[in-house]
């Protein structure tokens, strides 16, 4: 019998960077009015350009959030076609005089990801029935064809617009690799079943939460990043609490820090610097 | 047989923000008397307004505490109807010139929560007897009705006034998700039993400690926040030590850092800045 | 049969605060002689007053230690009757101009504690024989009587003078709550046996080490604080190493950071600021 | 029967230092043009010299990367024949006036390493057949001969040029030493089998990723460092995700932080300081 | 049968302090030549005196190392007869104006230690055969006699000179106290066997590595400190990797951070401050 890979096929889309900054309000307050005006004018020009970053048919947007709590004051969320583009967006902020008043407190690098558990099972099965051995050129061609087809079909989800909801909840997470409970030792069929049940919960919240999953294995310190967008912040709590009881989360999920922000337009920068929420 | 959800029904109330600040006393000492007066006058006006935040029939208060130890000097505790209101209260402090003398050391975001283990068991049972399948529109209507009724009945506990006790003890906590001992794999009946026993201990302390539980799944880095208010600080130690032996705490509780403060009125700000306790 | 509580009776005494400071020697060196003199004069007056804090028959002392290593330069140890008194002592330092030259690096809040394993077993047994149910008014009266009697008898140990030894070793600790080895699931008889054996080792060192145990559940980030006082620092190492092999430490003890200081009088402050050990 | 060592033979090559710096752009922006020019001129001379470090037939190169995210802005990667040479390269940067504008955020010290699992098995077997006892002079001579021969044959991999790919991914890792799953208790034959399977995955990515493994046991806080070089950053994610399912990674790998950078020539320094990507 | 202690006899020698400093090169570069000369002159006098600290027949030395990587730039290693002497050496540096240019990043306090597993087994056995009960005055006299005799015999190893090798590798370590694998629950005979095997590996490296073990239970945050001295840094990696497979390390060792430095004379201070390696 032909061996079947344990690794599900995965689609990659936008590269994603979360940046968290503390605003140096003491230093900003100390500035004279002319300097503030000069700095803001340059910043608004640059940030507004980043906000509307459409390129090659993909949204390539940047969004701004006023953060709650001490983890930061301003969260910037970039989606770009490549990490190089992402880094250019990051540097476009770093080169502003405004950055003298922004102290980086955290960041997170990832790439929008769709894990194709169901397609993978079908594809691997079909290729195995044809007698193709994994990772031979013929087998690779078969999976590449699936990835290409699905990437095209999923393009709006792989290169998404940033939802316009009032609240953002971001957190990174891992799958547990404990001595006894180890996600990466679970069979693909079992993982597929658990991910399906997990997805069912999300679907019940589909009308009040938009979710974007990005993968960060090889890019940052956790395996995945989760962005939730909603107009009622309590649904973050309800959704994640409910999910905590499904098998894949209860047993295999490890969570990092949680970051909450309220969406603001780049144009509200001046208000945020002094401590007003538009 | 109809499947019954593992997730207890939960009521949400006030959004809660704890802010911890180190006072930059060296910089404050270096200020001339006029500047101190100007800064204090503006601060007192704003902080007093935050203190008495009543809105739409809910207290929406802010309270101030002088913190013991190096984790901070001033703890500010806000209760508001929404996270947006909470963030506006946070920014009302950030925009003060006084904030040049306050360095954020920590914060914690959560929402007052009442977990309805007993009602959930009854409601889920009753709905199951009617043959309703969880998460169908009829079932959702049944639980929504319970939540609405209980929220109205519990309103003073969901949107509480801040107790006026001398001491505050705040700490965050998690339920353990170990490889063998995992709260989220325990049956609801077992969890209900353990939470009931846990509540019995709290009840014995009801005359000397006021407790407010807030949920922070999806909001901050632990699952719950606990605020204890008492006039004799030793009861914090006695209560939590006693609870550590009940099953739900002994086996399933993980604790974060503990923060202890002494209640002060906003009007005492001037004293606290120089290092006096009124 | 009447159920017996798992929680041992506990006596509380002095509230205890450890403060660790880094001395800003660069800034101190940069001061002119007049400023140094002014700052020292005010500081010596205040610190000497804290040192001799006798109040209501209890010592209520503060002691100063020159710390070894990078964790801090000056350790201040306060014993007071209440946390409010402790906080006033803390603020008495914070309000000094001297504090511009002291950077807090750590602190620890606790309360002197005597765990009455042996009395608890006897008392609980005797009350059970009388058929009293735990936490009924009669039972509470019975334990309250024991606590009152023992507190009076143990008063010098509950409100201790600070031993005058040359060296202090302070560390916080927890009892393990692992998935299999969990102190809070061990029967009281077993815990009593282990604590007794543990105490036997301490007794062998009684002539060269003074030990003060304080509880910090609900007050700070570990469950207990341990202060050891000795004139030969090597006995700290010998004692703790030997204890590491007794069952309660080997299996159930978790240790935090260790802090070592050499006792200095408040009057030696000037020497310590420039880097001399009197 | 002769006992066979559990330790595989290992070849060491270049000493490797990763340095991560935050660029103090605020201070740089505040400099006058003349100072910038003076500092850059001296820096470019020194960094270009480090870049092309050929010595005694080995490349001995240094490469520069613009880092994505808050972990640093500039990553410097040095390969040198000895740690002393490496430290001289590190100090050559530290002594530049440019270093006033570079704040070290992290570093990692290691040495290029090739673990000879297959050769070791053969060599240990052959020496055992000759009846040689491990660590006797004859046995040592036998393994020394293998190491010398392989070191010569592998010289280009032991003292590698730095690949010129656009992206670098660096992370440190450990082998797990859990209570039940402990790499160092696994038999050499089993380890050899798992490492072989692990290597097969890497081989499938050979045309799009260059991998350099360095050992850091005794040098830094993890056991190994991994450098991946590629022109398409998504292959880092794909490769490491795929490997996470092979036995040696799923069960025995622990990962540290991940660092991502884009290759820049030393000559691009001026651009990077102001926040441009050439 | 007489019970035998689980605790091996241990000899203590020099108190040891490792200090790690970051050099504030930016501030140093900004100094005028006269100030540099004044500061260096005073520092060299003091540091050279510390370097050659012979007292009461013991070397009592201090050595200086230029550190590789971001953990610090200057490592200072003191051996003294007592912690008080050690603290005086520490303060002798703190009181220098040079210390304005040295930022402490880490330190480690310990005492040279020789664990007498083999002697303990013999001694405990012999005392048991005489029917002596542990910790009785007679038994104590018996072990005290062994300790006194061995301390005299081992004096050069207990109060060692600092080896003059080019490289130093320092790291702290613990013995594991896991739920199943717990060093402190292993019988003394088993521990003695494992420590003996462990020592055999060290012996094979005796001609190229000098090792000094110090105990830090009760003094600092790990149980032991290990200093390795060698002229070829790769032997640190080889030795520690090889040891990782022996039972005591594979199963029971936990390692802290690793610190690598190159030996420099105090006289090289001026060079190190500007970033040269003599």
Word description of this protein:
Five copies of one chain form a homopentamer. Helix content of chain A is 40%, strand content 26%. With 278 residues, chain A is of the alpha+beta class. Chain A has a domain of 98 residues: Apc35880, domain 1 (Alpha-Beta Plaits, 2-Layer Sandwich). In chain A, strands 1-3-2-9-5-7-6-4 form an eight-stranded antiparallel β-barrel. In chain A, helix 4 packs antiparallel against helix 5. The longest helix of chain A is centred in the first third of the chain and has 19 residues. Chain A is elongated, with a radius of gyration of 21 Å. The termini of chain A are far apart.
- Biggest beta sheet summary of chain A: 8 strands, antiparallel, barrel
Here the CATH topology of the domain at 14-111 in chain A equals Alpha-Beta Plaits
Q: How many DSSP E strands of chain A?
A: 9
**Radius of gyration of chain A (Å):** 21 Å
Termini separation of chain A: 64 Å
| Topology order of chain A in helix (H) and strand (E) letters | EHHEEHEHHHEHEEHHEEH
Summing up helix and strand content along with how strands pair, one would put the structural category of chain A as: alpha+beta
Overall shape of chain A: elongated
CATH superfamily of the domain at 14-111 in chain A: Apc35880, domain 1
* Top CATH class of the domain at 14-111 in chain A: Alpha Beta
User: What do the pLDDT scores of chain A average to?
Assistant: 96
* Poorly predicted runs of chain A: none
Strand content of chain A: 25-35%
- Classify the oligomer: homopentamer
Strand order of the largest sheet of chain A: 1-3-2-9-5-7-6-4
Largest interface: A-B, 41 and 45 residues
CATH architecture assignment of the domain at 14-111 in chain A: 2-Layer Sandwich
Count of alpha/pi helices of chain A:
10
